[in-house]
Amino acid sequence: PGHSRCPAYLRGAPGVIESVHPPRPILDVYETEGGRIVPQAWYTVGFESTDLWDDPGPAHRVFVDLWETHLEA
Fold first, then answer.
1. 40 beta partners
2. Closest alpha carbon to 5 in 18, 55, 31, 58
């Protein structure tokens, strides 16, 4: 629920964490909650096109950087 920087077509799709990046402040929180700094790890996640779209065209992988709160176990 609510706003998320995670694209809707990725939500619930299986992905593989390709890279783990050091925590950085989440600017959405900083800008909307009076300058509160909330560092959070972020990840480069790879998705198979066949898991994202009904007609993905030639099979390929899509790589997206996502905050930790965007991931599900």
1. 24
2. 31
Which tokens in the block code for residue 50? 């066949």
Strand order in 16-25's β-sheet? 16-25, 39-48, 61-67
Give the ranges where the chain is alpha helix by DSSP (H): 27-32, 49-52
Global confidence as pTM: 0.78
Average pLDDT by stretches of 10, the chain with 73 residues: 73 94 79 73 94 89 90 79
In whole angstroms, give the CA distance from residue 36 to residue 5. Answer: 19
Could you tell me the two tokens for 49? 């096109």
Q: What is d(CA 73, CA 15) in angstroms, rounded to the nearest whole number?
A: 10
Q: Which amino acid is at 4?
A: S
